[in-house]
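This section describes the prediction task in plain terms. A model, or a person checking by hand, is given the sequence of a single protein chain and must write out its three-dimensional structure as a string of tokens. No templates, partner chains or ligands are provided. The sample shown here is typical of the held-out split.
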Amino acid sequence: MNNTKQNITILCISLGSGGAEKVVSLLLKSLKSDYNVNLVLFYNAIHFPIPKEVNIVFLSDKGPDRPFYLKAIDTIRFIFKYKRFVKREKISISISFLAFPNLINGIIATFNRSIKTIISERGFPSDNVSSKLSLYISKLFYPIFYNRCDKLFSNSVHINRDLKDNFGIKIPMEVIYNPIELPENIIVSKDLNTRVKSLNIITAGTLNVRKNQIMIIRALNEAKTDDKLTILGGGNLHDYLFEETKKFKLEENVNLAGKVKNVNEYLLNNNCFVLSSFTEGFPNALLEAMAIGLPCVSTNCLSGPLELLNENETVNIKNGEFYIGKYGLLVNNDDHIGLSKAFEFYRNNPENREKYSALSLARAKEYHLDSIYSNFNTFIQN
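The expected answer:
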């Protein structure tokens, strides 16, 4: 390692296929030039690329799919292993992503005040818990251990407000949005200015309740058109979505494509992207679709879509309707009728598909990795 650089760690559960993990992978590309970087993972699961200059440390050789009680035992072991690692490697800055790593960082800060501890919340805390027990644990431990750290960054102003108002977080907080690498191939906006009888719609995300892909299927059923929908991602609701598709007799219209590596190739072959989530931290999938040049429609969920599509200016949307935002369309959570009307707007107005395609491309450039990393590095050092 370069002795002239500070030794830092990035602490994360794994580098699996989630949004936070992708952000870590992207930031590592720039961090390696300015620091001696250690990527410390709870579990041995890697989906995204890691620069060869980064030192990878696994606190367990097992995968992350473990029962909750075993994860609780693991966490106790990880505290001691990480505490020893930080001391042995003379780590100056410990940066953690997601709740459990953040709590460990808070514990480390309690015993080692010489290290700078920075935590990152990646989901909307009040909505991003799986049960009442999880919410109780969060309400109990966030104020204790998060507040031991030096500062916090998230990817939404709404997340920071929620942490302050509902979880008693008092340390300095900033917003650093997710970075993106702009793709080589993009949609030519003017190619979307052609009248079509049906849309080719795409969405991407884990097939679970929070992502709410059934809303899109119901919108297709409501529209009674020949729109086609591709759903990228795997998850425990695959069979449910498949059966609902059959119930609506939409087998020819809906493609459950599963997990894919070449997401951008799928995006390029469609003319509308939709995000249907009940809640988000910051929707990478929406930003990546915009970077390709797709006109987009999203639920106005917390958090992220309003910031991306309307510069965080508050909107009021009537049930069964949609809102024409600055960079895309917004609908209320779980409102398949409003979503159906948004699809109709894009289907019948090719000039607006072209307009929002161009606006998507322009908006995505504001989140380029170079710009976001510059903000991130300044935040680390100040």
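For orientation: The chain has 13 helices and 14 strands.
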